[in-house]
Structures are given as structure tokens and as C-alpha cells.
Amino acid sequence: MSSEDIVYHAKAPIKEGLQAGTIGAGVGLLVSAVQNSVGTHSHGATGVVARTGSTIGVFAAMAGVFAATDAAVANVRETKDAWNSVAAGCSAGLVAGGFQRNAQTMVFGCLGMGAMMGAFDLSGSSLKGKYADMTAEQKAQWRKSQLDTK
Questions:
Q1: Which GO biological process annotations does it have (predicted)?
Q2: CA-to-CA distance for 10 and 79, rounded, in angstroms?
Q3: If residue 144 lies in a helix (H) or strand (E), which one and from where to where?
Q4: In the chain, which residue ranges form alpha helices assigned H by DSSP?
Q5: Cα–Cα dist 83/87, whole Å
Q6: What are the tens digits of pLDDT across the range 76-129?
Q7: Residue 54 near residue 71, CB atoms below 8 Å
Q8: Do the Cβ atoms of 15 and 62 come closer than 8 Å?
Q9: Which of 15, 31, 57, 72 sits 20 to 30 Å CA-CA off 48?
């Protein structure tokens, strides 16, 4: 199957963002609970929200913005590739820096998250890499397609 045969199906950015934001809030709640249990304070269990609750918001906002940006960029470009992840990672890094209220953190968050998410997507969106499930013939064909200049 050539790249011309692949048909792009549009995504709903707001729906994607809300779903990912909800999952991000759950992860943030877990991280906040761990931060609360490790720290010494007089808030008790309410410290999850009172003391380290901003962690929940950061995780929710970053996940939601990442997913919404990824879907929106993919819809505009009508393709699913690493550049969508670069743009989405950059926007999530901007959000992380925004919570710090520091322009330098926003810029480096954008660059770092964009590069990291682009590299992850290029590697096959898996910690095993895109080669893990390829046959030897598929690997040779993929290498050849990457070296061909059109």
C-alpha cells in the first residue's frame, strides 16, 4: 500500500482534548496523592487538593491541549505524521511553562516537548520502535523509502 492509498479520517479536536484532559486529570490526581503522602504537612488527606492540587490541573491541561492540538493540526494537514506530534508537544510545553509563569520555561518546554514527541512518533509511537513488528523485507523496503529522494 502506497502513501497515496491512505485515506485520512478527520478527528474532533474538542472531544479528543476533553477525553485526554480527563485522563490527564486522573494521572495528576495520582501524582498529587503521591506528593501529598511523601511530604510532611498538617493538611492530612485534603492536602491532595489543598497543597498539591495544582498538579492535577497541570496534567489535565497539558494532556487536553496536546490531544486537541494533535487532532486540529492533523485535520488541517489531512495527514497523521510526526509533525502533528511536534506541534502538539510544543503546545503542551507552552502550557507547562505557562503554569510556571516564565517565558523561558515556555520556550524550552515547547522545544523540548515538541522534539521529544516528534522523536517518539517517528520511532513508531512505541517504546519498542517501528522495527519491532516488521519483517526483514518490510525493514529493507522502509529503509529504501527513507533514502529515496524524489
A1: mitochondrial electron transport, NADH to ubiquinone
A2: 9
A3: helix 136-147
A4: 13-38, 47-50, 54-77, 82-100, 103-122, 136-147
A5: 6
A6: 998 888 899 999 999 999 999 999 899 999 999 999 999 999 888 887 777 776
A7: no
A8: no
A9: 15
